[in-house]
UniProtKB/TrEMBL annotation:
Gene3D superfamilies: Alpha-helical ferredoxin, NADP-dependent oxidoreductase domain. SUPFAM superfamilies: alpha-helical ferredoxin, NAD(P)-linked oxidoreductase. Pfam families: Fer4_9. Residues 147-178 form the 4Fe-4S ferredoxin-type domain. It comes from Methanosarcina mazei S-6. This is Aldo/keto reductase. GO terms for molecular function: iron-sulfur cluster binding; oxidoreductase activity. PANTHER family: D-THREO-ALDOSE 1-DEHYDROGENASE (PTHR43312), OXIDOREDUCTASE (PTHR43312:SF2). It comes from the Archaea.
Length: 185
């Protein structure tokens, strides 16, 4: 990002909530950090303000499915200026980021660029279950949900088409093997 900005390129951010992953179902240790903040904000507002704090970022594209989301985002944007977070707020965000990174097995945003899979694997859903099992320390619960999934990881033939399309450069076939290892067929 800094390199692109140094060359005069505008930075556009997609998936600021990582497909909703950062704002739905909060691990308790992350919620504790947010609760300790001097100013209480929703996870959505924290995510957006984190990005808006960077002067290098020109645009943040946030998917919104309800008018309430639009209203909230407009309200948040009115205070979301570059360099507007305090050092304490940046430190809280850094702690949250470290926890998320340590609990994320696959860096998948759920963008679905990898889809459709010719073998019928629902790649983003497989990765969601794998990440949730780690994030919430609930492999058994996620396995129960996974068992009803159409397009399980075991259908992967390692054709590689998904890996060519993945903007995150995820080794999809390798990570789908991790799903099978954790949840079985």
């Amino acid at each position: 990002m800094m390199y692109a900005a140094s060359k005069g390129l505008g930075i556009v951010i997609m998936e600021p909530m990582r497909g909703g992953y950062l704002v739905s179902g909060m691990p308790p240790e992350i919620q504790e950090i947010w609760d300790s903040a001097d100013i209480q904000r929703s996870p959505v507002e924290w995510s957006l303000r984190y990005l808006w704090d960077y002067p290098e970022i020109a645009v943040v594209l946030s998917g919104m499915s309800e008018i309430k989301h639009v209203e909230d985002n407009v309200k948040f944007a009115s205070g979301g200026l570059p360099d507007s977070l305090t050092e304490r707020e940046r430190e809280l965000i850094s702690r949250v980021k470290k926890i998320y990174m340590s609990k994320t097995r696959v860096n998948c945003t759920g963008c679905r660029y990898c889809m459709p899979c010719p073998s019928g694997v629902n790649i983003p859903e497989n990765f969601k279950y794998l990440n949730n099992a780690e994030m919430f320390d609930n492999a058994e619960g996620e396995k129960a949900l996974y068992s009803g999934l159409e397009g399980q990881a075991s259908n992967c033939t390692e054709c590689g088409q998904c890996e060519e399309k993945c903007p995150q450069k995820i080794p999809v076939s390798q990570m789908l093997k991790e799903v099978v290892k954790l949840f079985g067929k």
